[in-house]
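hey
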C-alpha cells in the first residue's frame, strides 16, 4: 500500500513538473500557443496533465486516510465544510463566466459577480478545496500537492492574462488594476461593503 502511495506522489509530481515546464516555456515563447491552447492537441495535453495531477492528489489523500485511519472527527469538521464551500464557489464562478468563456471564447470580459472579488475565482475555489482535502486527509504530502496546484494555477493565470490583454486591451488592464489575481484585502473589503449594503 505504501508503494501505491509513493506511486501517486510520483505521478502527481511528474504531471505537475511537465505541465509547469510547458507553461513556463509558453510564457517565454508565447508563439508556441500552449496555453491558452492554439490547437486541440495542446489543449488536450494541458488538460490531461492537469487532471492527472489532480486525480493523483485525490488518490494520495484517499490512501493517507486508508493507511493512517479515518479517526479524528475534527479534521472532517474543518475540511469538509471548506470543500463544500469551495465547490459552491466554483459553480458560482463558472455560472458567471459561462461555459464558452471558460474555454477561451471571446464572449465578453466578465467582471461582475464573483469576478468582482477575484480575476480567477474558479482557481481560488479549487485551491480552497485542495486545502480542505489536505485537512481531511491530515497529510503533509497532500498539503504539498496543494502548493503545487497553486503554482500550476499561477502559471495558468499569467499565460491567460497576456491573452486577455491582447483580446480586451484597456478594459482588461483596468480590471487587472482594480481586482486581484486571486484574493487580497480588496476582496474582503468588497465583500464587507456588499454585505453591509444588503443589511
Amino acid at each position: 500500500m505504501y508503494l501505491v502511495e509513493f506511486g501517486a506522489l510520483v505521478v502527481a509530481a511528474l504531471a505537475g513538473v511537465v505541465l509547469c515546464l510547458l507553461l513556463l516555456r509558453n510564457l517565454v515563447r508565447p508563439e508556441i500557443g500552449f496555453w491558452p491552447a492554439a490547437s486541440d492537441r495542446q489543449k488536450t495535453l494541458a488538460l490531461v496533465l492537469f487532471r492527472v495531477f489532480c486525480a493523483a492528489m485525490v488518490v494520495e489523500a484517499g490512501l493517507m486516510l486508508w493507511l493512517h485511519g479515518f479517526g479524528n472527527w475534527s479534521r472532517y469538521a474543518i475540511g469538509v465544510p471548506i470543500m463544500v464551500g469551495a465547490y459552491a464557489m466554483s459553480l458560482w464562478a463558472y455560472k458567471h463566466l459561462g461555459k464558452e468563456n471558460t474555454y477561451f471564447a471571446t464572449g465578453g470580459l466578465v467582471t461582475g459577480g464573483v469576478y468582482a472579488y477575484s480575476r480567477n475565482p474558479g482557481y481560488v475555489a479549487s485551491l480552497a478545496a485542495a486545502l480542505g482535502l489536505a485537512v481531511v486527509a491530515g497529510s503533509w504530502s497532500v498539503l504539498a500537492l496543494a502548493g503545487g496546484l497553486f503554482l500550476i494555477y499561477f502559471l495558468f493565470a499569467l499565460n491567460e492574462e497576456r491573452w486577455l490583454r491582447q483580446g480586451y486591451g484597456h478594459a482588461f488592464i483596468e480590471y487587472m488594476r482594480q481586482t486581484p489575481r486571486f484574493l487580497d484585502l480588496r476582496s474582503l473589503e468588497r465583500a464587507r461593503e456588499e454585505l453591509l449594503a444588503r443589511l
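The chain is about 75% helix and 0% strand. Helices lie at 2-28, 40-68, 73-97, 99-102, 121-137, 140-168, 170-178, 185-198.
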